[in-house]
Structures are given as C-alpha cells and as structure tokens.
Amino acid sequence: MLLKSKPEDFIVEEINDLHLHESGSYSYYKLKKTNLETNSALQKIADLWKINPKYINIAGNKDKVAITTQFLSISKGPEKDLKTENLELTFLGKKNDRLNLGTLDGNKFTITVRKISAEERINLLKNTQRADFLFVNYYDDQRFGIEKTITFLENCSSKSSSKKQQNSYVKEITIHIQKQRNGRRNIQTILLEFSEHCQRNCC
Hints:
There is one protein chain. The protein is an alpha+beta fold. The protein folds into 2 domains: about 1-105, Alpha-Beta Plaits, CATH 3.30.70.3160; about 140-200. Helix content is about 35%, strand content about 25%. Strands 2, 3, 4, 5, 6, 7 and 8 form a 7-stranded mixed sheet that branches. It has a two-stranded antiparallel ribbon with strand order 1-9. α4 (about 145-155) runs antiparallel to α5 (about 165-180) and α5 packs antiparallel against α6.
C-alpha cells in the first residue's frame, strides 16, 4: 500500500472553537497550505506582510506532504486575506489573547490509501475496528522543519557537559536531517537517540 503519495492523500483540518470578536489585540486567520511545511508557511506570511515571525502564533504544526487547514493569530495583524501558489490565509476576526501551542480541540484526518492489496484491505478493516487500534505518527523534518529541528537540537545540546559532545551530536543530526526523504529512518533513529540523551543529560 501507498500512504501520502500525493498531498491530497492526507488532509488535516484543525478543530478549534475560537469565539472571535470584531475587535482585539490579535487578528485571527484560517491557514490552508498544500505541500508546505508549517514553519515555511509562517515565514512566507511574515515576509509578504513584512512582520516579525515571532508575532505569529499557532496551536500546532501540521504535516508537509498534505493539504492542511489550521488557525493562527498575529499581533495587530492586517484585516485582509492572502493567497499564494500553495498557501491561503483568510481573515476571521479578533481577540484579546493569542493562540498558544496545544490550544485546539483536535484534528480531523481524511486519509487516502493507494495500491492496497485485498489482504491489506481485510487487515486494515479488521484492525481499525479494534478498541486499542493505534496509528503511529512519526515526527521528523516534514512536521518540524529542518531549520527548527536543528535549532532545537542545538539549544538542547548546549546544556551538555562536553563541548565536544555537543558538536558531535549537532553535526551527526544535521547530516542525517539534510538527507531528508532518503534518510527518513536514520533521522528518526538519531532523533530518538538524542531525545534519550537529553533526558539523561539536559534536564
């Protein structure tokens, strides 16, 4: 079977009851993006509207190889829409408080599976009816972005006891992340190892 072979095969819709008003310090928008990593979308908005990215807030990152919709707030943002080739931003209203990570009700997923065999179809239908069914969602560069991931790792590694150890980890992780799709499994392995390293030495 094939998963996420096209952006339209993985549709994510953020669910959030915003209770917007006509006035407030923060402007709220609905962001729809196609085959675009979240941080790249935010940077594009900041560049086009000539604002500092730090004033743009979201409730969570969304996948790159997908069509996703989510909400964002901008401090004193313009009351207008924005549209580019792979990004649509629609002004919704205002509030006096901004969006923060985790302040959402959930996400709705519409997933298209291609080239599924008869046996895989039977197993999929059987497994999804189980009460304990889980779908593993790997977090790598398409969710967090290459630059942001490296920045996080550098910040975490700066708490390590050895400067040599810091440089070794950052260099190793950077190399694997830059491989992107061809190194997907290696990225996951390195991130897991580094996460365990941080828990032991950084916290």
